Every structure is written in structure tokens, then in C-alpha cells.
Amino acid sequence: MFKCGEYSVLTSASLFGASNKNYNVASNDEFKVEVYFDERTFQVHEFNYDLHYNIALLKFESTTPMLIASFKSVEVISEAARERLLSPHSEVCRISVNDQLIAVGRYFDKPFMLMAAPGAFSLDCPPLLKTTCKISKCGTGGPLINGDGEIIGINFFAEGYTPFLPMNIVLKCLEYFEKNG
């Protein structure tokens, strides 16, 4: 995400412990937060998070242009309904049980290598959905990507499967951060 000369990263709020607050890093010494891209480390100057949804928005500046992700809401549909769709172009990303997905994350220690875990979509109780992707705790907060390269959610760690928060809820959290944070 990019806005007004700064970049933002979405990740898991589990980094921030047990309180639900917004912080300006410049005025708070409790946390030191960094993001890592293209073999460079960037200091986060502001972050917002919500522990209920386990989502965090980290803001940093860079003089180098970076790729910016786009987001769509997620709609779970049956395989039969997918066969009747005429156009894949939509403001909504549609997923069905057994659709192939990839969970992406980054290891915590240098050299901060990327990890990817393939799997398939399966249903769970809302608002969390789940996939058979098997990630380590390092994958928590990373994106879940479908076969078309669309980001459909944020990964969380669990033994045996990967729960994820769909982009519909992530987008609502971003709206809240924008208005209140």
C-alpha cells in the first residue's frame, strides 16, 4: 500500500502483545519495528493494530519505488457456481473448496528468506477461513495468494492447517485505521 509518500505493510498484530492501541513509534520507545524488503531494512515510524482481528498496519518511508498490492473482497462460492461465471474480471475474488492457494511468509532471522507453502482452500467457521497450507510461525501475518496471484487473506499459524482472515475483513480494518488512527 502507498499513500502520501509512505508505504504500508499488513501483517499480524500478534507482534504487539495484549493491548489494543495505536502507536507513533517516534514518540514511543516500547517498540522498535522494522520491515525488510530487497535486502534492505526500513524503520517503521507509525503502526496501528487490532488484536481482535489480529491485524497490524506498519508505515515506513522509502526513496525507492516499491510494488504496491491491490486488494479485493473474498466471496466463497460453490464449484458449480464457479462453472457458471462468465467473466473472471470482478471487484471480488471468488474462491471454492479445494482451490489451490499459496501461503507466503518470511523467516525471522537473517537472511530473512521468503517461505511459501502450497495448499487448498477449505471451509471453517466465519470470520476465519482455512487452508491446508502448512506454515511455520514465521508465516503468521503473511499473505495468502490464489492461483491468479490475488491476495485473498492474511495467514495465521495453527498446527495442521493455516487459518486466514479474508480480505473483506482486512479492508474494513484498514478503513477503521484510516478514520481513527
UniProtKB/TrEMBL annotation:
InterPro entries, A to Z: Peptidase_S1_PA (IPR009003), Peptidase_S1_PA_chymotrypsin (IPR043504)
Domain of life: Eukaryota
Gene3D superfamilies attached to this UniProt entry: Trypsin-like serine proteases
Protein name (record): Uncharacterized protein
Protein species of origin: Papaver atlanticum
